[in-house]
Design a protein that fits this description.
By secondary structure, the chain is α/β, with parallel strands linked by helices. It has three domains: 36 residues; 330 residues, Alpha-Beta Barrel (TIM Barrel), CATH 3.20.20; 127 residues, Chondroitinase Ac, Chain A, domain 3 (Sandwich). Helices cover 34% and strands 26% of the residues. It has 17 helices and 24 strands. The strands form five sheets. It has a nine-stranded parallel beta sheet. It has a six-stranded antiparallel beta sheet with strand order 15-18-19-24-21-22. The chain has a four-stranded antiparallel beta sheet with strand order 16-17-20-23, with no helix packed on it. Helix 14 links the parallel strand 10 and strand 11. The longest helix is centred in the N-terminal third of the chain and has 26 residues. The relative contact order is 0.09. About 4% of the residues have low confidence. The chain binds (2R,3S,4R,5S)-2-(hydroxymethyl)piperidine-3,4,5-triol. The site of (2R,3S,4R,5S)-2-(hydroxymethyl)piperidine-3,4,5-triol has 7 residues, from loops.
């Protein structure tokens, strides 16, 4: 009996010590990181922001499905082998309001369940795209009971008084209906995925913004337009004046930097002022949708933007969209949105990545053109801008060339991701995208300067004799030891020099081709002679995405 008592007392002691440890750990926030089913979250670590999934940083090597491909589970089922072959770890897939709430207040999550189940069966994560009130400015994904009840769910009107199939962001009833559906979706995801974390993030609506006019002319909108500009907007203009985007600041100052008045009085009457007006009210609407969803299940949430071109005016591009010139307005209006993302179909990939990689706005590219250049764009975004992820659009349509290039790019990024993510606050990476107009780029890592050059700058390259534009090529250099680097990419030549002139020169010790398997370097041929230009450069030819390892040394 005494023995049993002793064992029991020991057990109690052990349980209470464990409880104290658990309490201390959870108070310190530590247990959150190691818990199996903790909610995916964005965490700012030094100068980078990372997506933390089950306590570990996660890099989204992704692709977005074509719009209609998640509307039939039989159709969807056929796509996964191709996505897996391209080495994706994440798929961006739509959730359609018309499907989840076909009858008002009655929810049907069969498609969402099927999507999640198929993703899990294929070891894939998901980012869900909420096709709710708006999809590319239109409201085509609203259920029929919304579409048919115009008086309850008001639409925007053009300047000419024509109604369009676009819900007005000025209607409380529209907002209420969207919030209810989105909240039901988030509750469902929480119920079925809180432990697994298949779903990593949610995009709220899709490419918001108004066309063809720069603003809504419905009665509801007109009233708000004539009203006083909200105090929060005035506060933003006043307190952030010095750092405001120059376009917004100019609008305000040209109109007399007023501290009260209607929208036309405070920002002027032009199209760009109307763009800011729409930006504020779209953003407020989206924020309320996101806020309601996060209150139920706080996944990271973002919005995506159709990008403008300099020659296009508001209304020709989506007026009110989260574009660089209206980012201040958007940021101020959307504390519940974590990221504003660019959909990059424009050839100026370098320019747009720069514009969206801003303090407080980590880069995530949910859509990008799918062409042979896309594979190096992925490397560039991740190495140059610490992007959280990259996702070409309609990835399932990749032809054999693009599939092979994407597979190569994602395979290598997948092998390198632990190194990339563990050292994002150290300067161990440099990247370049090169073409005929920008054939060279220099970057410094540690004690070395690297010059990236387009393969066609090398006179023995087959492409050097080609006339016309050069294909975009590029890649990255990543440090693995003080004098050792991987060079990854295609169509690039990399040369080396000292970062500081100290009388020393830099030579190539050796270069190897090889493979990364489970993070380990398996060397292939030693590349010397013609392959490294007799010890003078590292060259990855244009045929595919490849990796080489180089050891440098110094001499006088
Ligand atoms: C951008 C949209 O966000 C996508 O849903 C799709 O419509 C593409 N454009 C088509 O290029």
């Amino acid at each position: 009996m005494q023995i049993i008592k002793n064992v029991f007392a020991r057990l109690l002691q052990y349980i209470s010590i464990s409880c104290i440890i658990c309490t201390l750990l959870s108070a310190s926030g530590y247990s959150q990181n190691i818990q199996e089913g903790s909610v995916p979250k964005l965490v700012k670590q030094g100068i980078s922001t990372q997506l933390i999934v089950k306590g570990k940083p996660f890099l989204m090597l992704a692709g977005e499905l074509g719009n209609s491909n998640a509307s039939s589970l039989d159709y969807l089922k056929l796509l996964w082998p191709k996505l897996s072959k391209m080495n994706l770890n994440t798929v961006l897939a739509p959730v359609y309001w018309e499907f989840i709430e076909p009858t008002e207040g009655k929810f049907d999550f069969a498609l969402v369940d099927g999507l999640i189940e198929q993703a899990r069966n294929n070891q894939m994560h998901l980012v869900l795209l909420w096709f709710g009130s708006w999809k590319n400015s239109m409201s085509c994904y609203t259920p029929l009971w919304v579409k048919k009840n115009q008086s309850r769910f008001p639409r925007i009107k053009t300047k000419a008084g024509i109604t369009r199939e676009i819900l007005s962001p000025f209607s409380e009833e529209n907002l209420k209906a969207d919030i209810r559906a989105f909240s039901a979706l988030m509750k469902h995801i929480k119920d079925i995925d809180e432990k697994e974390n298949t779903v990593l993030m949610v995009q709220v609506e899709n490419e918001i913004g108004l066309k063809p006019d720069a603003r809504d002319y419905s009665t509801l909108a007109e009233k708000v337009y004539q009203n006083e500009v909200p105090a929060e907007v005035i506060k933003l203009l006043k307190t952030k004046r010095e750092s405001l985007n120059p376009a917004l600041r100019k609008l305000w100052e040209d109109a007399g930097a007023k501290e009260s008045g209607s929208w036309a009085e405070v920002l002027g009457t032009g199209l760009y002022a109307e763009d800011m007006f729409m930006a504020w009210y779209y953003a407020r609407y989206i924020n309320k949708v996101a806020e309601a969803g996060k209150a139920i299940y706080p996944l990271p949430m973002y919005v995506n933007a159709e990008l403008n071109r300099p020659e296009r005016k508001p209304g020709e591009y989506s007026s009110g969209a989260p574009l660089p010139h209206s980012m201040d307005i958007w940021k101020h209006a959307t504390p519940s949105i974590d990221i504003m993302s660019p959909d990059i179909y424009d050839p100026d990939f370098i320019g747009w990545t720069q514009k969206y990689d801003q303090p407080g706005n980590p880069l995530f590219i949910p859509e990008a053109t799918l062409n042979p250049q896309t594979a190096v764009n992925a490397i560039y975004a991740i190495a140059q801008h610490k992007a959280l992820g990259f996702s070409p659009f309609a990835i399932e349509n990749a032809d054999s060339t693009c599939s092979a290039l994407m597979a190569g790019s994602y395979q290598l990024l997948n092998q390198l991701k632990d190194l990339i993510l563990s050292k994002q606050n150290e300067n161990i990476m440099a990247a370049a995208l090169l073409d005929k107009d920008n054939p060279r780029k220099q970057a410094k890592i540690g004690k070395y300067m690297f010059e990236f050059a387009h393969d066609y700058t090398f006179k023995w390259s087959a492409g050097a004799k080609k006339t016309g534009p050069w294909p975009v090529t590029g890649g990255m250099v990543i440090q693995i030891a003080p004098d050792e680097f991987y060079v990854v990419g295609n169509g690039i030549i990399v040369t080396f020099s000292p970062a500081q002139a100290n009388g020393e020169l830099v030579g190539i010790g050796y270069v190897e081709e090889g493979k990364l398997i489970n993070g380990r370097w398996i060397p292939g041929r030693r590349l010397n002679g013609d392959e490294d230009h007799q010890g003078q450069h590292v060259r990855i030819v244009e045929s595919g995405i490849d990796i080489q390892r180089v050891k440098l040394y110094n001499y006088q």
